[in-house]
Amino acid sequence: MKKSIFRLLLLSLLLGSVLFNTNSQADAPTDVSVTLKVDQITSVDQKAENFGVVGSLALEWNEPKMAAKAGEKLPPERFYLAEDLAKVMTERQIIWPAYSFFNQQGRMHYQNRIATVDPKGNIFYYGRFSATFQAPDFDFVDFPLDHQRFYLMLDLLPPADMFQFVKSESASGLGDALGEEEWILDGAEVNITTHNELDVLASRFILSFEGSRHLNYYVVRILIPVIIIILVSWFSFFLNDYTKRIDLAGANLLLFIAFNFSVADDLPRLGYMTLMDTFMLATFAITGMVVLMSVWLRRLQNHGKGELADKLDNFAITAYPLAYAGAGLAMLWKFYF
User: Fold this and answer.
1) What is the distance between the alpha carbons of residues 238 and 246, in angstroms, rounded to a whole number?
2) Which residues of 108-133 are buried (b: 16+ CB within 10 A; e: fewer)?
C-alpha cells in the first residue's frame, strides 16, 4: 500500500514537472538572432549631427506555424519577398518580429529584402538598405582632436515577452571598405538591451563604433597657415616703420577672421567653446594686441619718445612668442587637465 502511494506521488510530481516545463517553454519569448553590418559610410554631416549608412540586416527566428504539417511535403527552402512573407503571415494571423531603427532620420531605401523558410519553420530574413541616422551625442569640445561615438539602434516592436534579440554567430560590425575619407572608424561594439518607447517593454539591439579624424587636413589647411601668419606677425617687430607694421598686423587679423569662418562652416552653432575656437580666439587677442601696440609705439614716436618706444619694442620681440607659448599651455590645461 505504501509503495503504491509512493509511486502515485512520484508520478504526480513527474507529470507536474512536465507540465511546468511545457508551459515555461510556451511562455518563453522567441529568440531573434540579428546580424547588422555597416558596409559603407556615405557621409558624416557634423552641422546636422547625422551620418549616412549603407548596411545589411539579417534576422533569424523560428515560427512553428510556418513549419510543414504532418505528411506535408515542402521544398527545402521557400523563398519570399519580404512583403509577400508579411502578407502570408498576416493571413495566418502570425505575429512576426517587426523592427524599426530608433535613430533613423527620413526614409529608409531598400535595395532588396528577401526571406526563406525551411520545413521546420526556421525563417531567415535579409535586407540591404541605405538610410540616415541621427548622432545626437556628438561632442565637439576637443575639435579637431575629438573622438565621436556612432550608434545604430534597432528596436523590436512586439513586446519582450514575445520576441527578444540575441547575438548571431555571424559577427555584426563594420565592413572593410567604408569609403569615408575624413574619419578613422573602428572599435565596433554590440549591446542588447530594452526600450520602452511605446509604453511597451521591447528588445533593442545597438551597434556602436568610434570615429577619430584624419588630422592631415587640419594640419595642412589650418594649423600650418596659421603658424606662418603668426611668424609673419612676429617678423613685423623687426621693422622700424610702425606704420607698415600696423598695416601688416591688421591684414593678419583679417586672415584669422577668415580662418574662423572657414572652421565654423564645418560645425553646428554650439553653445560651448571648442579647442579650435579657443586657439583662434587666443590668436585674435594676441594679434589685436600687436595692432594696438604698434599704434601706441607710433604715437610715442610722433611725440618725441622714440627711445621709450624702442625699449618697449625690444621687450615685445621676446614677449610675443612667450604669449603664444603661455596661451598654448593654458589651452592644454583647460582641455586635458
Assistant:
1) 13
2) eeeeebebbbbbeeebebbbbbbbbb
pLDDT by residue (tens digit) across 310-335?
888 888 888 888 887 887 787 777 66
* Residue 142 identity: D
Q: Tell me which residue of 34, 155, 36 sits closest to 102, measured CA to CA.
A: 155
The whole-angstrom separation of Cα 38 and Cα 152 is 9
Domains belonging to the chain, first-starting first, are 30-213 (2.70.170.10), 217-336 (1.20.58.390)
Residue type, 207: L
Model confidence pTM above 0.70: yes
Residue 27, pLDDT score: 66
Residue 297 CA to residue 24 CA, distance in Å, equals 89
* Cα gap 53→211, rounded to integer Å: 14
Please, are residues 37 and 173 in contact by the beta-carbon 8 Å criterion? Answer: yes
What are the residues whose beta carbons fall under 8 Å from the beta carbon of 308, sequence distance 6 or more? 300
Q: What are the residues facing 203 on neighbouring strands?
A: 194
pLDDT of 139 > 80? The answer is: yes
Under a CB-based contact definition with an 8 Å cutoff, are residues 320 and 234 in contact?
A: yes
Q: How many CA atoms lie within 13 A of 158 on its CB side?
A: 14
The count of C-alpha atoms lying within 13 angstroms of the C-alpha of 67, restricted to the half-sphere facing its C-beta, is 11
Q: pLDDT tens digits, residue range 146-193?
A: 899 999 999 999 999 999 999 988 889 999 889 888 899 999 999 999
Are 168 and 35 in contact, with CB atoms under 8 Å apart? yes
Exposed, middle or buried: residue 64 (CB in 10 Å: 0-12, 13-18, 19+)?
exposed
Question: Mean pLDDT across the chain, nearest whole number?
Answer: 84
State the Rg of the chain over Cα: 33
pLDDT in tens, 203-215: 999 999 999 998 8
